[in-house]
Amino acid sequence: MAKKTLFDKIWDKHVVDEIKGGPSVLYIDRHLVHEVTSPQAFAGIESRGIPVSRPENTVATPDHNVPTIDQHLPIKDQLSRFQVNKLTENCEKHGITLYGLNHPYHGIVHVIGPELGITQPGLTMVCGDSHTSTHGAFGSVAFGIGTSEVEMVLATQCILQPKPKKMRITVDGELSAGVTAKDVVLYIIAKISTSGGTGYFIEYAGSAIRSLSMEGRMTVCNMSIESGARGGLIAPDETTFKYMKGRVFAPAGSDFDQAVEEWKLLKSDSNATFDKELHFDATDIEPMITYGTNPGMGAKIAGKIPAVEEVEAGNRESYEKSLAYMGFNPGSPIAGRKVDYVFVGSCTNGRIEDLREVAQFVKGRKKAEHVTAWIVPGSKQVEEQAHKEGISQTLDAAGFKLRQPGCSACLAMNDDKIPEGMLAVATSNRNFEGRQGPGSRTMLASPLTAAAAAISGVVTDPRTLL
Question: From the DSSP assignment, how many helices (H) and strands (E) are in the chain?
Answer without folding.
Answer: 16, 18
